[in-house]
Amino acid sequence: MRKLLLMTLLFSLPLSAEDRFKDVKILSEKVSEGVHMLTGSGGNIGVSAGDDGILIIDDQFAPLAGRIQQALAAIKPGPVNYVLNTHYHGDHTGGNAEFAPPATVFAHHNVRLRLADDDKFSPEHLPVVTFDKGITFHLNNDTIRVIHLPHGHTDGDALVRFEQANVVHMGDLFFNGMFPYVDLKGGGSVEGYLNAVTKALEWMDADTRVIPGHGKLANKADLQKFQKMLLDSIIWAKKQDRDAPLEAWQKAFPASMTSWSWRFITTERWVTTLYEERNRLHD
Fold it and tell me: Which of 31, 42, 135, 255 places its Cα 20 to 30 Å from the Cα of 164?
């Protein structure tokens, strides 16, 4: 508790002009009873808060930990008890060492392996409990099922289902309204990504609230639109000449799909991902 209070005081102080996070505000949105979504800079944070304590799904960047704790305190006072990482990227795991201890960090085996292999992360960042196919939390009057979906965004993706609240946290298996980042070097795959989204849709109904890794709170219909974009992209890529240069693919990509482009994954970068995966499969 003393450590978390110190962080809160530290990060409430004025930040230097050079600090990239100086203007970031952590906003809280109630998703369902006992479930919230926090947004700031990086992946959206899922929160389960109740009599059994606080579980957060992902934790953005270390410099935001104090502000995240302040937002959590408005939901339920007290330290974070559990952290679940949906995958290894720094905008979802950067705060691990700030919350643990006292929190216990959970993730897929591959998340720990990739963080341990990255010099930017200290041993304190590493998950201490890892799983293979999944794990279940019985917490705050809900059954929270964590399911590993392989080779989608990365090779360590975890999807989280709040069964009683009817909420699903997708991690970066869902960029709402945007082309996704598929980490081909981190074990990801465009077709595996589509398979993961298709599987997730089987566990949803029209009332399911969907927390994306990035973007606004969504529902099943939003995820179905995203699924169609993925499918259309894959079908288009399979029709292209594998031996043609990347520039030819860029010119041929349908203009009707460019509305999914955004700052990080532009249309050009998305086509490059499709191109690289198509050629990798034939190497």
Answer: 42
Q: Residues 165-223: pLDDT tens digits?
A: 999 999 999 999 999 999 999 999 999 999 999 999 999 999 999 999 999 999 999 99
Q: Which token pair is 165?
A: 């609240």
Q: What single string gives the DSSP state of each residue in 181-208? A: P--GGGT--HHHHHHHHHHHHTT--TT-
Q: How many residues does the chain have?
A: 283
- Asked whether the beta carbons of 139 and 48 are under 8 A apart, the reply is yes
Distance CA 77, CA 80 (A): 9
Determine how β-strand 104-108 pairs with β-strand 82-84.
Answer: parallel
**Predicted confidence (pLDDT) per residue in 87-133, tens digit:** 999 999 999 999 999 999 999 999 999 999 988 888 999 999 999 99
197 vs 230: CA distance, rounded Å: 9
Do residues 159 and 149 touch, judged by C-beta distance below 8 A? Answer: yes
Contact criterion met (CB below 8 Å) for 52 and 140: yes
On whether the CB atoms of residues 213 and 173 are closer than 8 A, the answer is yes
In the numeric block, the tokens 């960047």 are attached to 61
Q: In the predicted model, is pLDDT for residue 3 greater than 70? A: no
